[in-house]
Amino acid sequence: MRVVRIREHGGLEQLRFEEAPVPAPGPCEVRVAVRAVGLNHLDTWVRRGVPGHTFPLPMIPGCDGAGVVDAVGPGVTSRKVGDRVVLAPGFSCGACPACAAGRQNLCRHYGIFGEMRDGTCADFLVVPERNALALPEHVPFEVAAAFPLVYLTAWHMLADRAELRPGETVLVHAAGAGVSTAAIQIARLLGAGRVIATTSTAAKAAKARELGADDVVDYVREDFVARVRDLTGRAGVDVVVDHVGRATLPGSLKCLAKGGRVVSCGATSGQAVEVAMNLVFFKSLSLLGSTMGGLGEVHEVLGHVAAGRLRPVVDSVLPMSAVAEAHRRLEARDVFGKIVLVPEAVS
Ligand SMILES: [Zn+2]
What we know:
Blueprint: E1 2-5, E2 16-19, E3 29-38, H1 41-48, E4 64-72, E5 84-87, E6 90-91, H2 97-100, E7 111-112, E8 124-128, E9 132-134, H3 141-144, H4 148-161, E10 169-172, H5 178-189, E11 194-199, H6 202-211, E12 215-218, H7 224-231, E13 237-242, H8 249-255, E14 256-264, H9 277-282, E15 286-289, H10 295-306, E16 314-319, H11 323-331, E17 338-342
Parallel strand pairs: 10-11, 10-13, 11-12, 13-14, 14-15, 16-17
Antiparallel strand pairs: 1-2, 3-4, 3-8, 3-17, 4-5, 5-9, 6-7
Helix pairs in contact: 4-5, 4-10, 7-8
This protein binds zinc ion.
């Protein structure tokens, strides 16, 4: 089978096409013939490397994918050959107290496909049976591959960590990012009274409105803190979804109303942030961290996608041979939503 493999960290040239043996499923595992792969920023970090973090190279990248079950290992009961499936992007031990509680992302052995073990940029991959969720016939593979990681992330941030309540006001940074497109829709679905998004271009602003943002702030031309104050009559917002970090977090805290929560799933602009503790205690603020979510939440999100209540945003569908171009566009932020890659044989 053909795979994309990263042997050393570096530039786009490190995305090498190789031949590899087709893997065999072990007990309680299924083999999936991949039909579509969703690209995430995590793929670019695995390729470039992250200072202070060790990825187990060589690695087949790709966290998100959808396809057809092609073989099942001993003991598999819930899936059969020919089933359409979408993959839950995280795996865990399945036996510890966190896993038993359905909070797999808190498992000490939690990992993500394409980050801690081989991922979806391959003709086939083997996953635990519980990671292969039945995909309804009417959801195309390209749409299915576009949602799991970012919608799981955004769902866990808003529903679980920030405990968003109906009527609350939400600020979502960088509306074009995959997790932000998800957060805007999920905030709406959970009953947010108002969703404010920030973005950098008029075209992205229009798309953010289509997704459900009531107001869009141009963070290049405007001071987002001042604009949010104006838009909320100086009250501030109840929840901020922040994955930008250093460039936005101090402002995110200033934007919060009393009792507000900022929930962070990343810090793409820098990790070290100075926090004004007087704001935090005086306004009873919460600074919440969030990574991925539980397996049950993947099922929950899939239910909303299948019912049309959440609509994954696909920026473009490219052949797998364009994986380097896809990485380049993602790094240049030249996307709105997800880039999906399709293996050539079935494209
Ligand atoms: Zn566990």
